[in-house]
User: Which sequence fits this backbone?
């Protein structure tokens, strides 16, 4: 449910951002319309920058999407061998775009210049072929139904509106359940593509693609930031983000270093998958910290909480609360030996579900007059060592 809530939030926020961008573009036409040639000239540079940038940060879906839009733009603006055919077959063009958006939403990020890249180029070609076959199939079906005014209307619905509806619902669902900015960008691309086809967005393609590709570039930058400053497993800010925060702290703050007790033993007993679940659990509980605390994953089973403008006396009660929340939480572990259906249905195996709890030790220190961030952190780490030496599952300052 939390992931779906995040997906809805990310989707709505992205739709608002891109809607505002297009609103500004439409509302300011009187300013830029006479200078539209600037968009046409700069768009090629934007294509190149986005392709290079997205490929460098392993966002191959954006790379391919930008290349496809670049080929489309060149096709409609240059007199290429296939330009007249493409412009004369708008329905095929619309459907090809829809099928490509749907395909990209199902693919994972892979290298562009690789066997995966070659296979995806083939799949894009099959999307175009599928759009062509779909058009022929609909014509055959309508002919079999004896064309009249009613079936003629259905011809249009079956040819375009049904695929538009199905692809849009697929992209909307994927964007909500995955909370993925790339999938949301595909949903936005689909909406813009269809609105342009039905002339609801009446902007030159150079302007529309400038807005759209600029959005792709923005998403790549945002995702790259999170990749660099967020821990992939727990979703918490990483050690690099902690170092960035250290540069902006005032002369009053406290640091708490948190370590999971007996984590190696837990990992050895239940496996690394369960160990990862423990890390996620502890991270989620730490992330409920109050008193203005900022939580980071420092490395391994160690976390760090920074309390700007707080001394240790002001945060000890909150740290104790967090420690108790973690210690009192019962984590369910199923026995890895239950493999067959018979074993799963055997009543004797019902007791193979085991509940365990984990605990954390916490060391805390506040910045003193002559100490910097590294020295304060070391003091907190020494307090953590004291907590572990004196019984674990406690807060020491």
Assistant:
């Amino acid at each position: 449910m939390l992931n779906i809530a995040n997906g809805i939030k990310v989707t709505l926020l992205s739709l608002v951002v891109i809607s505002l961008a297009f609103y500004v573009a439409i509302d300011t036409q009187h300013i830029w319309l006479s200078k539209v040639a600037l968009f046409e000239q700069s768009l090629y540079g934007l294509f190149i920058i986005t392709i290079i940038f997205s490929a460098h940060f392993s966002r191959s879906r954006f790379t391919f999407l930008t290349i496809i839009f670049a080929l489309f733009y060149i096709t409609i603006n240059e007199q290429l061998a296939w330009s007249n055919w493409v412009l004369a077959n708008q329905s095929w063009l619309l459907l090809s775009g829809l099928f490509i958006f749907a395909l990209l939403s199902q693919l994972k990020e892979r290298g562009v210049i690789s066997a995966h890249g070659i296979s995806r180029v083939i799949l894009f070609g099959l999307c175009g072929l599928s759009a062509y076959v779909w058009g022929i199939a609909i014509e055959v079906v309508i002919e079999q139904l004896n064309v009249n005014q009613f079936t003629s209307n259905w011809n249009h619905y079956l040819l375009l509106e049904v695929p538009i509806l199905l692809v849009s619902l697929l992209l909307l669902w994927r964007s909500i359940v995955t909370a993925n900015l790339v999938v949301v960008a595909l949903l936005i691309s689909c909406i813009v593509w269809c609105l342009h086809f039905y002339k609801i967005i009446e902007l030159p393609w150079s302007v529309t693609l400038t807005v759209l590709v600029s959005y792709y570039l923005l998403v790549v930058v945002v995702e790259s930031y999170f990749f660099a400053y967020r821990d992939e497993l727990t979703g918490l800010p990483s050690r690099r983000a902690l170092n960035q925060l250290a540069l902006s702290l005032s002369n009053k703050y406290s640091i708490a270093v948190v370590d999971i007790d007996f984590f190696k033993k837990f990992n050895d007993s239940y496996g690394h998958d369960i160990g990862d679940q423990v890390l996620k659990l502890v991270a989620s509980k730490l992330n409920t910290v109050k008193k203005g605390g900022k939580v980071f994953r420092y490395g391994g089973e160690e976390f760090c909480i920074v309390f700007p403008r707080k001394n240790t006396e002001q945060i000890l009660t909150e740290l104790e609360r967090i420690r108790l929340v973690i210690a009192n939480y019962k984590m369910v572990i199923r026995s890895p030996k239950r493999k067959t259906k018979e074993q799963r249905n055997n009543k004797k195996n019902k007791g193979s579900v085991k509940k365990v709890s984990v605990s954390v030790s916490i060391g805390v220190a506040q910045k003193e007059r002559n100490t910097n961030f590294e020295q304060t952190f070391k003091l907190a780490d020494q307090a953590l060592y004291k907590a572990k030496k004196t019984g674990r599952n406690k807060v020491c300052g």
Remarks:
- The chain has two domains: 2-229, 239-339+349-396.
- The first strand starts at residue 253 and ends at 260.
- The chain has a mean pLDDT of 88.
- Residues 2-229 form one domain.
